[in-house]
Design brief:
Layout (H helix, E strand, L loop, with lengths): L1 E6 L8 H10 L4 E4 L29 H11 L4 E7 L6 H14 L4 E5 L5 H6 L7 H17 L3 E4 L4 E5 L13 E4 L5 H8 L2 E3 L9 H15 L7 E3 L5 H10 L3 E6 L4 H15 L1
Parallel strand pairs: 1-2, 1-10, 2-3, 3-4, 4-7, 7-8, 9-10
Antiparallel strand pairs: 5-6
Helix pairs in contact: 1-2, 2-3, 3-5
Length: about 280
């Protein structure tokens, strides 16, 4: 099982480049950043974590800009997006950004995507919440065409463009793995159709995660997809949690670091490092 670190990089927290270097030095496989372009003040959509929305959501750095800095300041650690709100992004521009990052990092991108939970946020980008899953599907499929074809085109219900040229192409072939986030029952179907792995959040599934992983393995075999890795996001940093997920067949565990200064983050990182070793 592989281990990663996730961090809400903000303007008031520990420097993200320094943390990524520390994560790499301690032997972690991957470093993950989330995305929120903004948070509407209305707060109509409840935070899935329950209670008041944490301050870090309002202050999150742009993950693509931050990942560009990490690409040139680290050498080995994989650069994971957990997750990109692709329903709020142009697929042609995003395909170029991901391919450029994959090129500059030497093929280290893990491209997590999801449909989001903040309805007001996506509405501000012109996205109709009820159509977001159809939109996510088409944007992922369109981006895969751009990444893999010298002359790419896509004609869907919500994404439509004629033949285009777009370079660079990703270093990873056929493209960086697209990991689909979410805990709803339909998420596994999305993973099978257009994903290269699954990112469930700790503690947000209605069914036991081990049962869902068994379903994913069965569905993947039936569809001829092979092994699709499972990345559990936000796991508890305890030996019992790690051992339980290993038994369930999880491929990667990602631990959150607090969005605080280094005096708070580094002791937490050392604790998790000792656990994973």
């Amino acid at each position: 099982m592989k281990f990663g670190i996730a961090f809400f990089a903000t303007d008031t927290a520990m420097d993200v480049v320094q943390l990524a270097r520390a994560v790499e030095e301690r032997g972690f496989e991957s470093f993950w950043l989330p995305e929120h372009t903004h948070i509407p003040v209305s707060r109509r959509s409840p935070w899935p974590g329950g209670g008041e929305l944490p301050e870090r959501y309002k202050r999150t750095l742009d993950p693509f800009v931050a990942m560009g800095a990490l690409a040139v300041s680290t050498e080995r650690v994989l650069l994971g997006f957990g997750i990109v709100l692709l329903i709020q992004r142009d697929p042609i521009i995003t395909a170029k950004a991901v391919a450029t990052l994959d090129l500059l990092s030497g093929g280290r991108v893990l491209f997590g995507v999801g449909g989001g939970w903040n309805l007001e946020e996506m509405e501000n980008h012109g996205t109709e919440p009820k159509r977001r899953w159809r939109l996510l599907r088409e944007r992922v499929l369109a981006m895969k065409e751009i990444w893999t074809q010298d002359v790419a085109e896509f004609h869907g219900e919500l994404v439509d463009f004629g033949p285009i040229w777009s370079w660079p192409k990703p270093v990873q072939k056929p493209h960086p793995p697209v990991l689909v986030g979410g805990n709803a029952e339909n998420t596994l179907k999305r993973v099978i159709e257009y994903g290269d792995g699954w990112i469930p959040n700790e503690g947000r599934s209605a069914r036991p995660l081990a049962d869902q992983i068994s379903d994913l393995r069965r569905m993947s075999e039936e569809a001829g997809r092979g092994h699709l890795p499972v990345t559990v996001y936000g796991t508890h940093a305890t030996p019992e949690a790690v051992e339980g997920y290993a038994r369930a067949g999880v491929d990667r565990l990602v631990f959150w670091m607090p969005s605080e200064p280094d005096s708070v983050v580094m002791p937490r990182l050392e604790k998790v490092t000792a656990l994973t070793r």
